[in-house]
Description:
This protein is an alpha/beta fold and 248 residues long. It has helices spanning 22-32, 48-56, 71-84, 108-136, 157-177, 196-201, 203-206, 217-229, and strands at 12-16, 36-41, 60-65, 88-93, 139-146, 182-189, 238-241. A seven-stranded parallel β-sheet has the order 3-2-1-4-5-6-7, with helices on both faces. The protein is globular and about 50 Å long.
Amino acid sequence: MTVHLDARKDRAALIVGAGDATGGAIAKRFAKEGLIACVTRRTADKLTPLVEEIIRGGGRAHGFASDARKEDEVVKLVDDIERDIAPIEVVVFNIGANVPCSILDETARKYFKIWEMACFSAFLVGREVARRMVQRGHGTILFTGATAGLRGSSQFAAFAGAKHALRALAQSMARELGPMNIHVAHVVVDGAIDTDFIRENAPERYALKEKDGILNPDHIADNYWHLHTQPRDAWTHELDLRPWIERW
């Protein structure tokens, strides 16, 4: 028997770029609320601990190896989830690409790759999921941005250009899709996040954790859930998240 998508009660949350910190915390938060967490990275093996943790906690999760820069892989990913798991209720694009380099030394290849990771892949993911959401008349699309999307710092020309473009993409999509009941939001994460990388490579910065001076991934995830549950008469498009200690 063929079941129409709208008749299925289950709903999926697709997290593209489900790393060990922010992306993983977002996946766990949405799974806690009953959505099926569909998490992606380029290497599936790295997703196993996250998927197993969600399942142990009583949630449901599936891991997918997928390169978001490749159109055919993004199309297949969305098709597979929609067909085999559940309609995608919310998608979180969480790919970073924060790679510093002097403009004097930057290569065309790396500049283009950073743009592919931080912006072009967001377009592919957003477009494919939006096509399904529009048919159903509802959905949420959340993009993880950065301070670089607001101002370009020294040594970050490639990253700033890509994140500025991501912010513009989110704005354009919000204006087009909002009237179709699709909530599109851009989250500016401004500050160091509690990760192994910060602990090992920036111990002085990590020490600020005791003063709430770095971002807690679980608290970031709470804000993503809040965005998803907002009533449409009070939608937030852009949300800044930063520790109280951070200058801006």
